[in-house]
Amino acid sequence: MSELIVMLTYDDLTVRNAAEIFDKCKHSKAKFWGFKQAPLPIEEMRKLCAQMKSCGKTTFLEVVAYTEEEGISAAKVAHEAGFDVLMGTIYSDSIRDYCNSHHLKYMPFVGDVSGRPSVLKGEINDIIAEARAYESKGVFGIDLLGYRYVGDAVSLNKKLVEYINLPVCIAGSIDSFEKLDEVKNAFPWAFTIGSAFFDEKFGSDFAAQIDRVYDYMNSDS
Description:
The chain is of the alpha/beta class. It has helices at 18-25, 42-54, 68-81, 93-101, 124-136, 153-163, 177-186, 195-198, 206-217, and strands at residues 3-7, 9-10, 13-14, 32-36, 58-63, 85-88, 105-107, 112-114, 119-121, 142-144, 168-170, 190-193.
């Protein structure tokens, strides 16, 4: 089963009441939780991350950053706030080295990523080759903005998971049961849902939506 990462974000920004929402949903079935670097101050991020971990959750900071300097800064924030996994950033050896030395798992973006909300461009074969290069450099996994891709998202998602031997997270814009079926078929390690829960794409109650998606992905249908 692909694991659901609940992202307390909307349009690639952490919602202001993220801690309140998590508290109401902490007993839902999702084991993985995360949010973005902006706009919460570091102290609020630290408290929310600690709250999640005290409930037995694995924590993810996804960073929309396109320079090495921004990526290093974000990695430092992830470490200081106590996250388990850093997702995003344009790959660099310096970010990887920082993550390795501070016990952070690193899952960089692949492809030509730009904008906020992010957009992914590039040829599928080139994106796969880039992911393989990062695999050889020892990253934990890959943050794939599959449904932000300007081309054939279904083909990209399936081929990347098939052709690399790393955890792949399909992140962003999963907002329907049709896409959940496509994710099931691609079978990544994990996938994120954030804005779609706030837009009530899977029901009317936040916690109930989480469990509905979790159960759907765990079913044989």
